[in-house]
Please model this.
Amino acid sequence: MNNILIVLFNDSLGGAEQYLKMVAEFFLKKEQEVYVIFLTKKTTKGWEELERYSNFKPFYPRTKNKFLGGIVAAKRCRTYRNIHFKYTFTSHVHITGLVGVLLKLNLYRTKYFVARESTSIFKRFSGIKLLLFKLQYKLGYAKIDLLICQSEFMKQQLLENLPQLASKMQIEVIENPVDTERINNAGLGQTNLPAPKFDYMVSAGRLIEEKGFDILMEAFARLKKNHQNLRLIILGEGKLRAPLEEQRKNLDLDEEILLPGFVPNVYHYFRAAQICVVSSRVEGFPNVLLQMMSQNNNVVSTLCAGGIEKIDGVYTALPNDVDSLYEAIVDCLGNSNSEMGAKFQRELNSRDISSFMQKIDSILEKQPIK
Model:
């Protein structure tokens, strides 16, 4: 039996967390021991469904402070010194830096350290924040065996700004995985949460600037002139709730734009929508786009990440551009798109989590033994 270690900030289910949860369940189903260290206390039920596996070993500290959580995580790793981990997985620069330092200090052992870049750092951040990210690259990244980038653009941005990384680790582009088994069964256990009966378009994600929901609201306000019965549902919670509610009020669309907050299952919303929209300004790669494609033939996305332009069937728009997003939505709504389902399914099958892990194994097996 192999042991797997996953380290992450919290138990929320953003894109990076969903990826790590998918990896965790993949190994749990294979009856591997999966240890998960969260840096902050349990605040959601995002990972509770994995507790049905006896081989799931989560650790939650008592603190909400990420810095203190990092110290607690270091102490926790010392208790794992007699455990031989085959893989360690991370998907956030600060967490990757921390784990790299723990490995430098020999606080625990792992055969392979597999890290994933969760976003295009050099496109998204600047100033002090960017300096802090660069510090993490310097401190901990040398211990990585495989660094996964979600797109060629992300890899290019990384190496243009930190060319020295190429000599320290293997950097590969592997597209985001999907759990096709889970998708095929999506919504079956959520019959108590039926989708709305009215016509609506839907988007989902944390209520933060990067998701571009303010742009989507503006585009929707224009769309309402010719689609008066259509409503907009934005699923998710975050720090921009108040500004978005104020924008909704200023647009005089309090009844037409719905902000229900976090929902445990987005699939039934996606399936019943007239159209699904990703409006992000910048992403590593929007996992929600793949979820939408699994449920609906009418999908629009901004070109917020590399690789989206290659997905056959998705209507695309420029990021941070109301006019472009509006035009893409109108174009999508004006076509039947009945053939898109088969195209989307082929794309999703090529990204299955099993294939994703096989690619990782293939890459690592070619590396010399430490």
